[in-house]
Amino acid sequence: MDYGRARIGLAIATAEARLARPLTTLERVNRNEDVRRLRDLVRKHEVKQLVVGLPLLLDGTRGEMAEEAERFAQRARKQIGVPVEMMDERLTSWEAERLLEEEFGKKYRDESERKKKSSNEKPTVDSVAATVILREYLAKREAGEGA
To answer: In this predicted structure, what is the pLDDT of residue 117?
Structure first.
């Protein structure tokens, strides 16, 4: 999950294949509605664990957004009832933009301004950032299991 003040990017992976892919992007409404919609998606996709990106500052310290993301993760843990882990997400949005430009070309940034019409046609920076977070989490977990 790539938590933001305006949107929450979501990605999903199967436990067997461990392949992360973009799922959707939720436009933020309010805390209760955001958690309710997230709970619905968790049930629909039979999610067993959530991974929330922790937006640390480049020097590794915690800023205001890191505190906000952690509060959201705690609320999700209590209200959804699945384990929630935090994962360092520094530079994931930058990497997501780079991946989208590779996939859809340089015009992606310009078109993203007009994405309202085609929001279902291609992934958003937020959902791709969530995918990057989830891939890094899975790789870290797999490396830990292999050690």
So the answer is: 42
